[in-house]
Amino acid sequence: MPNLIELLQVYGVLIVFAIVLVEQIGLPIPAFPILIVAGALAAGGEISLPVCLAVSIGACLISDVFWFNAGRFYGKRILRLLCKISLSPDYCVSQTEDRFKRFGPKSLMVAKFIPGFNIIASPMSGALGVSTPRFLAFSMTGSLLWSGTGIAIGVIFHNSVDKVLVMLEDMGSSALMVLLSLLALFVLYKYIERRRFRQGMQIERISMSELVQLIHGGQHPIIIDARSVTAQQLEQAVPGALIYNACTPDSVMALLDKERHIVVYCSCPNDVTAAQVAKELISKGYHRARPLHGGLDAWNAHHSGASDPQTAHAG
Question: What membrane topology was assigned to this protein in its record (predicted)?
Answer without folding.
Answer: Multi-pass membrane protein
